Amino acid sequence: MTYLAKPKFHHPAIELNDLGFTHRDYEGAISTLCAGCGHDSISSAIMRACFELSLPPHRIAKLSGIGCSSKTPTYFLGQSHGFNSVHGRMPSVLTGANLANRDLIYLGVSGDGDSASIGFGQFAHAIRRAVNMVYIVENNGVYGLTKGQFSATSDRGSKSKKGVMNADSPIDLVTIALQLGATFVARSFSGDKDQLVPLIKAALEHKGAAFIDCISPCVAFNNHEGSTKSFDYVRAHNAALNSLDFITGRAPITADYAEGTTQDIALHDGSTIRLRKLSLDYDVSDRGAALNHLYQVHASGEIATGLIYLEDDSSDLHERLNTDERPLNALAEADLIPGAAALARINAGLR
Ligand SMILES: Cc1ncc(C[n+]2csc(CCOP(=O)(O)OP(=O)(O)O)c2C)c(N)n1
Ligand code: SF4
Ligand SMILES: [Mg+2]
């Protein structure tokens, strides 16, 4: 048996969402990851975000590659569609699924090995094509599943558990996603649920490629002194730019904040992101400034977290390709084989 089903008993007064579901309806099998693994906290944040947004579980498709991180979709959203693909190939499988049926909500879950090493090209193309998805990298700086080798996101100078120094320069997926035109870019930490849950909610409501790099310490192989992805290191070096509240039409937030410290961003679906700025001069709508800021924060040994970039007037792959709005399985034979006259028209248009 590769996974354990969770018993479904719950307290009769358990909280219900707008669909009448409890958070138990968003759970999956019992996790088999190491106790304390950051990835389990991210699973729990995903479940919380989907519960709070009242998303119908059967409208969500979760896709992953290979790794401890990529195993996690088994442990959440047990009633959603799921596809555990090949190492580094999640982005192309997700792109294909999304092209076939744009009506589902796509959640790609990957690791730093899965996305920054073997799947680096796949990651890049899914982001630049603006596939409508939430793409989460559970970033622990190692290949956890294969026993802790340095991954491509491991910082230069950081030490392995056995004391070996990493001499290679790191790949920062946040910087790459910004350069590739991602319209929602964030970084968070598995140990900061208050920051992570609203970020996931906002990403789920975003149209286009929403990327979240979530630092997620590996307690078995990368949580020691000398690592820059350990719980202690990230807590001590977390340079949060902002924290946010995700406000749907139904749940306005009334808390008072000092003038100039908040910024409301209206989204397509009528909801609002309320940014509480911790770094007052930071502008989430300035891609160039974001890249510059990331460079400076990294050079000072800190880790920039929060909502790093948002382009609300975004588009997605379907809009760019002008595809039919109906899913492929809803198209009839006459739609798929329009006949000789339509072919002649297309050919004439190419002459
Ligand atoms: C094609 C292929 N190459 C290599 C492997 C071996 N392998 C399995 S998981 C993994 C790395 C996983 O690292 P990451 O994506 O960071 O996930 P983590 O376990 O750290 O969450 C590797 C190299 C594989 N399964 N398939
Ligand atoms: S090996 Fe590391 S990444 Fe894998 S489950 Fe254990 S703590 Fe998590
Ligand atoms: Mg990893």
In DSSP terms (H or I, runs of 4 or more residues), the helix count works out at 12
Number of domains: 1
Report the CATH C-level class: Alpha Beta
Instruction: Write down the CATH topology.
Output: Rossmann fold
Architecture per CATH nomenclature, i.e. the level-2 architecture: 3-Layer(aba) Sandwich
Structural class: alpha/beta
Largest sheet: 8 strands, mixed
Order of helices and strands: HEHEHEHHEEEHEHEHEEEEHEHHH
Described by the principal axes of the CA atoms, the overall outline is: globular
Strand order of the largest sheet: 2-1-3-4-8-7-13-9
The CATH homologous superfamily is termed: Thiamin diphosphate (ThDP)-binding fold, Pyr/PP domains
**Poorly predicted parts:** none
- List of distinct ligands in this structure: thiamine diphosphate, iron/sulfur cluster, magnesium ion
Helix proportion = 25-40%
Question: Termini distance?
Answer: 60 Å
Count all strands and give the number. Answer: 13
Tell me, rounded to a whole number, the average pLDDT: 93
Proportion of β residues?
A: 15-25%
Q: Measured on Cα atoms, how large is the radius of gyration?
A: 21 Å
Pfam families: TPP_enzyme_C
Protein name: 2-oxoacid:ferredoxin oxidoreductase subunit beta
Keywords: Oxidoreductase
Domain Thiamine pyrophosphate enzyme TPP-binding: 66-214
What does this structure look like?
The protein is of the alpha/beta class. It has one domain (23-321): Rossmann fold (3-Layer(aba) Sandwich), CATH 3.40.50. Helix content is 30%, strand content 19%. The chain is built from twelve helices and 13 strands. It has helices spanning 38-52, 68-71, 90-100, 112-116, 120-128, 173-179, 193-205, 231-237, 287-299, 317-321, 333-336, 340-350, and strands spanning 60-64, 81-84, 105-111, 133-139, 142-143, 149-150, 184-189, 209-215, 238-240, 242-247, 262-266, 272-277, 303-310. Strands 2-1-3-4-8-7-13-9 form an eight-stranded mixed sheet, with helices on both faces. Strands 10-12-11 form a three-stranded antiparallel sheet. Helix 1 (38-52) crosses helix 7. The relative contact order is 0.12. Magnesium ion binds next to helix 4 and strand 5.
